[in-house]
Predict the structure.
Amino acid sequence: MIRVLGIETSCDETAASVVSLANDSKPEILSNIVLSQIGEHAAFGGVVPEIAARAHVEALDGIIEAALADSGVDLADIDAVAATAGPGLVGGLIVGLMTAKAVAAAAGKPLIAINHLEGHALTARLTGDLDFPYLLLLVSGGHTQIVRVAGVGDYQRWATTIDDALGEAFDKTAKMLGLPYPGGPNVEKAAVKGDASRFSFPRPMKGSAQPDFSFSGLKTAVRQAATAIAPLTEQEVCDICASFQAAVADAVTDRVARALARFREEFPDAGTPALVVAGGVAANRAIKQALEKICLEDGFRFVAPPLNLCTDNAAMIAWAGIEHLNSGVDDDNAFDFVPRSRWPLDTISTPVVGSGRRGAKA
Ligand code: KG4
Ligand code: ZN
């Protein structure tokens, strides 16, 4: 039996969790506490790093205590402490990793420094039967990537955004239209009442030989359309949201279809491989339905972990710790690990300048 305490503080959630794995058994989430700071950032229309770091300092000790108490496991019976060490907002990362170092040192436990993106990448193996290799579509406020996951530590980025992250595009669109933060859920809600054919917005990168995403041109098109007919009626806001969401779904499925085809070429014997989604935007029903459709057409299994595990949480960090322990990844020097605001999951592919908000949030 392995039990790992996970700690996550890379953005605006303070989270701790205990996950266990018994021999020949399924993993179990023994506790999963997530404290969202959304209320503290809402007035600013986005996450304020300084406020986030202070809020983590105030909350983290209590959240760790609550996660241990909820799990019914004593710190003495934990096998390792796993903490997000990057990428993310550096203030929050420092709080989380330093606290993890202190807890692990005091209890005499090993420490594992986890890449937040790896947490997202491995979550679907925590919640369901999923073998390597598979494809991951990570769509959050800070990242928009397609990653080939072939094993623990074996990640290759096949596509990324060359400008805005998808969640960021939703948030900025919402802001332009006067909808509250966080924008994604509000844009989706408005889109339900809108006419998606009212505005014909661009589908950036659609059909391009370059595999990446781009959303800034779409954002500009939304701004121009909104400015041209301002002041907007409620119905016009809904129509813009519906048209924007349709453009996004179309652009994303085009990019994903390209990656599915590449996966088929590289893994011709994979049978019915999986496309896994992660990140807050994975909550969007229109995008999900569009992805499910292309998966069905291309013979892929569509895997969407429960939403509370798609968004930022510490269970995914604890689970990544267990995966490290089980696969013999060398984590010897985690006590010396310095938090990294930028930490690509795939260290081989060339970084793309300008990809993702603040280069931080995942
Ligand atoms: O993964 P997440 O909770 O946090 C990080 O970015 O790390 O993702 C938050 C992002 C925000 O940009 C939010 O607007 C977007 O996910 N989002 C959505 C929806 N729910 C959340 N975007 C589109 N449709 C949604 N239903
Ligand atoms: Zn994330």
